[in-house]
Amino acid sequence: MSRSGSTLHQDLPLAKLGTPWRPAVAAIVFGLLFATGAAAMDVNVVGLFPNKAVVQIDGGKLQTLSIGQKTAEGVTLLAVTRDGATFDIDGQRMTLGLGHARMKASTAAAAVMVMADERGQFATNGEVNGIAIRFTVDTGASLVALPAIEARRLGLDYRKGPPVLMSTANGTAAGYRVQLDTVRLGDVTVHGVDAVVMEGEGLPVALLGMSFLKRMDIKREGEIMTLTKRY
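User: That's the sequence. What structure does it adopt?
Assistant: Structure tokens below.
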């Protein structure tokens, strides 16, 4: 979570607008729903580190595995790369790639886990209108905020939206209010999300603000934030 006092005109705060974004050291990767006979094992990999992986099995506590280590549930970590991890799960080899942790399919609400980077910020891959984008989670931002270069890449005709003035660490910049058809993180999809597009260089990364987060229950345990959709 960002902790900046930077604000947007009309009471829209934007955090760390002048700070360059760097990729997270710990990555969020796909989970696996693995069936063994009549039982199903829900394996979520929530963090990747050199020669180690952080896993959650069947919703239990987080476990940090070193290469070659086997859990009581029969999951052995075989290898770790920058983009994923390889496991032996009850005798079957499985590789999980970079992405979001996915929960076991059930009647429970959709949820996604996000890992903090080395600066304590929660950065994650997502989608806007079906197109991939990288977000930094920011509970201090009233709206989802997009740099203009990202908005153009997403195909948004943002200049048709109402103009606003935005105050950043680098001064005042022009912005435009828009509404996004969908914003998605993992299995969590929200429709009709209010956002602002900022021109200039004041916003180096897209911010996942409260126009998305207000529809979530947010739970933080150490370096892991879980977002569970409420409506």
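Residues 125 and 134 are 5 Å apart (CA to CA).
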